[in-house]
Write a structure and sequence with these properties.
The chain contains 3 helices and 2 strands. By secondary structure, it is an alpha+beta fold. It has 2 domains: about 30 residues, no CATH class; about 60 residues, no CATH class. It has a two-stranded antiparallel ribbon with strand order 1-2. Bound molecules: zinc ion (ZN). Zinc ion binds next to helix 3.
Amino acid sequence: MTAPRFRSRTFRRIYTRTPGANVVLHHKKRKPGKLKCANCKSVLKGRKSDIPSRINKLTRSKKTIKRMFGGYLCSKCSRRTIINRFRSKNE
Ligand SMILES: [Zn+2]
């Protein structure tokens, strides 16, 4: 019998084949939703979304984008905000 906490669909069910050729049921935590741009709400590319314990194991390049507003705004929105900021500074 499965443990009570695994009977709900909070956990993902994964069928895995063991070295002894048996198929066993594993339970994994579900992924949170995809990361979105703070301005236009489109899905961000180049940044992994997962639970924090799995994110901490990733390399820095998979967690962020090396650009102003990288990983916060999408490329179009960050480009627009950078240009607008420089324009307002120079005037
Ligand atoms: Zn955007």
